[in-house]
Structure formats: structure tokens, C-alpha cells
Amino acid sequence: MLVLANDGLLALGQSYDFDQMVVLPRAATAKLTVTQSLPPRDNGSTPYREEIRDLVANKHKWDLFILALSSLMSVSQDDALSYYQIAGIHGAPFQPYNGVMAYARNVQSGYCMHNSVLFPTWHRPYLSMFETQMYTLANTIAAQFNDDERDEYQKAAADFRIPYWDWSLYAPAGQSHFPDPCSDHLTA
């Protein structure tokens, strides 16, 4: 069963026997952006995301994170895979992403699905898209280091993942609960 609601939402029944590109005309106007898993290590294991304070302790990984983020932020705002456009999926700027408007009732909050049962299925692909761009840039940057540093940076880039903040950890003595790397002014 296929029903188009008044506000343009698509409701589907149990059958998925149709060509979605025909049913969803707005998809025909947008170039599809596909994200996928990052490559595993040579032994087949998956690199894990590190807590941000642990990432900072690894000079090569932290350097690559800051350089990749700076590089991503310098990509033209018109590029669908720029920091500006990817950040816009999460919230501001409140504009269509890649030709697709946000949900009609969410025009001033972007595509963000916080406070919704859809959050896990929305946030993971969003982070994957961001992480894929950062991974690609980190590996490109690592290859540009001079010969005596390149190997270490390429090893760090092969395991590159975006960090997380474990808010439940006690802050180290003399530091605020919010990790220093998140509040310090950083330049690349």
C-alpha cells in the first residue's frame, strides 16, 4: 500500500515491490550521496573510535584529525561533501541538502532527528558520511608528509576514526569536565 500524505510524506505498507526513484520525484533532482563502511585493518579487524582525550595523546592521530577537519572546512560550501553542507544536515544552515528539502515541520531545525525514535537510524549514517570525508582527507594528508614522518602518519591514517567524548569519565585533576581539546582555541 502506498499513500502520499498532504504534506508530501510517503507512507509504505508491507510491499516494497516498486522503483523508489519513480515514486520519489524529489530524489530524481538530487545527485545521490552514498556513504559506506571505512576499510578494516589488514588483519580484518575494525579500528575503534577513541575517546577524545586518548586521541589527543597520540600526536600523529591528533595532528591528522585537526588537519583533516581544517581541510574539510576549507572545501567550497557549494560542494555536497563540504563541512558546511554536511553540518547543514545536522542543523544550521537550514537549507536544502543536495536539492532535498527537510521535513516540512522541521524547516528550522534541518534534518536532525534528535528526540525521536528515528535518531539511531538517522545519526549513524550522518556520522558515517562525516567520518568518511575525514578519513579520506586524513589519508591524503598523511601521504604528503616528508619521508621520515610519512610512515607514522600513514599508520595513524589507516586507523583513522572520529573521536567521541565520554561524558561519564571523571575529569583529570585540574581540568574541567568538558575536555580541553574541545574548548581550547585550535589552529591548523
TrEMBL record:
Q: What processes does the entry annotate via GO biological process terms? A: melanin biosynthetic process
Q: Which residues form the Tyrosinase copper-binding domain?
A: 114-131
Reaction catalyzed:
2 L-dopa + O2 = 2 L-dopaquinone + 2 H2O; L-tyrosine + O2 = L-dopaquinone + H2O
Answer whether the UniProt record assigns the keyword Ribonucleoprotein to this protein. no
* Gene3D superfamilies assigned to the protein according to its UniProt record, in alphabetical order: Di-copper center containing domain from catechol oxidase
Enzyme Commission number(s) from the entry: 1.14.18.1
Task: Please give the Pfam families that the UniProt record associates with this protein.
Answer: Tyrosinase
**UniProtKB keywords:** Copper, Melanin biosynthesis, Metal-binding
Gene Ontology terms, MF aspect: metal ion binding; tyrosinase activity
| Recorded family membership | Belongs to the tyrosinase family.
Protein's UniProt name: tyrosinase
